[in-house]
């Protein structure tokens, strides 16, 4: 993708994808309940927060809320996001990452369509890393984490809550990452992860590898992990070797550091 027309065509495709995956029109959602984002004290707090916070309305593809600190972090006025919605925000994504983002959204929406009727849409957290263009024309790496906070009657997203962090200081590779986590009694556990160098080159972790990563992050040894997962210690060690190879890390400490930086495992949960 080397020119503006190709980029705009792809942006339009992403917008169409987000807006038209419902089997029928979205029902109106009651707004009788007071919203946290209307609280002036809460907004004053977010104004000085290190992350962006916004709410995407899937029916309009506009933002119902966008934190004012975007001016400090990216240099744009929050009002522009509120007025132009994702047609503007998608345009700030690095051109090389736009086709990857299209594939990522297709995968996410496919999962949400499948699990919507069961009500599981509210149990997922999605993490994406990508480059975003600031108002001064420079690009920085951002981590985007989002979750569905309101659904239509089919269980599909109506409102999505999004957090975005500047990770330029900790991002050590040029890969676009996608991590899907599911809420459990132990917090959010990663169930799918992949990294894209480009649209044709990806690194994917299996569900079993992610389970082992989670236990490694808690400090468990291979023998203990094997007991928890009811598999052999040899199988655990084989998965650990494969993950070291995939991530080009030298030992478990580096592997855990890698996994934490990419959102595969975390010390805290929402």
Can you lay out the helices and strands and say which pair or pack?
Blueprint: H1 4-19, H2 40-46, E1 51-57, E2 62-66, H3 70-73, H4 78-84, H5 86-89, H6 98-115, E3 124-133, E4 139-151, E5 157-166, E6 176-184, E7 187-198, E8 201-205, H7 207-217, H8 222-229, H9 233-247, H10 252-261
Antiparallel strand pairs: 1-2, 1-5, 3-4, 3-6, 4-5, 6-7, 7-8
Helix pairs in contact: 1-6, 7-9, 8-9
Strand order of the largest sheet: 2-1-5-4-3-6-7-8
The main β sheet shows up as: 8 strands, antiparallel
Helix and strand composition category: alpha+beta
Tell me the series of helices and strands, N- to C-terminal: HHEEHHHHEEEEEEHHHH
Number of extended strands: 8
- How does CATH name the architecture of the domain at 4-172? 2-Layer Sandwich
- Please name the CATH topology of the domain at 4-172: Beta-Lactamase
The residue ranges in which pLDDT falls below 50 over 5 or more consecutive positions are: none
Average of per-residue pLDDT values: 83
Beta-strand portion reads 25-35%
- Output the number of helix runs: 10
